[in-house]
Write a structure and sequence with these properties.
With 209 residues, the chain is mainly α. It has one domain (2-208). It contains 7 helices and 2 strands; from the N terminus they run H-H-H-H-H-H-E-E-H. It has helices at residues 2-35, 40-74, 76-104, 109-136, 138-141, 153-168, 184-208, and strands at 174-175, 179-180. The protein has a two-stranded antiparallel sheet with strand order 1-2. The longest helix has 35 residues, at 40-74. The two termini are 42 Å apart.
């Protein structure tokens, strides 16, 4: 199930990255056209083409957003279950290795290695989601409202609609409102694991007295 989540978010990451690269090239073409000396009629023709292209980009961006949201809603419980399972597995293996070391002064390398691999999953999974979110914000970071401002009403309308769409379709993924899927998730899980490990070790030491 983890592989399905990875595959889905990596696919959305690829979509957003390609979209962001195209939008950067599109913005560059607009800036180059703005620097050229054109007649008013020629300028209107160019802006008409740019408006059509921006509207098409808006439709594609909206489809990527809808696909990503549908995929996440479909697998939101799987993401929650996977995160809980990996957290409990990490705590259990580290606790087992520490208790064994305190009793017999020997290190269980298999448990420690497995715990490290579990923690790497915690790092990679939120990292992929965070990269996807960053790539989705690339078109929003471009200064669309500074390109041909007030020259053509249709162009201004397309720009305003696109900027409004970007604000409403900003990707923010959280798990049932409990926590967001981003790089801070690693610190949250690590602090939770340390807290529970501290309690478990103290209880184990009390029970051994």
């Amino acid at each position: 199930m983890v592989n399905v989540l990875y595959l889905g978010f990596l696919t959305s990451l690829g979509f957003y990255r390609n979209m962001g690269n195209y939008m950067e090239l599109f913005a560059k073409n607009i800036s180059e056209a703005e620097e050229q000396k054109m007649s008013k009629h020629r300028c209107m023709e160019v802006l008409c083409k740019f408006s059509d292209e921006l509207d098409k980009c808006s439709e594609i961006y909206s489809e990527i957003y809808k696909i990503t949201r549908r995929f996440y809603k479909l697998f939101q419980f799987c993401a929650f279950f996977t995160i809980c399972l990996m957290t409990m597995s990490l705590i259990r293996n580290v606790h087992h290795a520490l208790i064994y070391y305190l009793k017999y002064e020997q290190i269980i390398w298999s448990s420690l290695i497995f715990s490290v691999l579990r923690f790497l999953d915690f790092i990679i999974f939120p990292l992929v989601v965070d990269l996807m979110v960053e790539e989705s914000r690339v078109p929003q970071n471009l200064q669309w409202d500074c390109m041909f401002p007030g020259v053509d009403k249709r162009w201004d309308k397309s720009v305003n609609q696109f900027l409004t769409q970007l604000r409403f379709e900003e990707i923010k993924l959280n798990v049932y409102g409990l926590f967001e899927l981003n790089n801070n998730l690693c610190l949250l899980i690590l602090s939770t694991a340390i807290t529970y490990l501290t309690v478990l070790i103290q209880l184990s030491m009390i029970g051994s007295i």
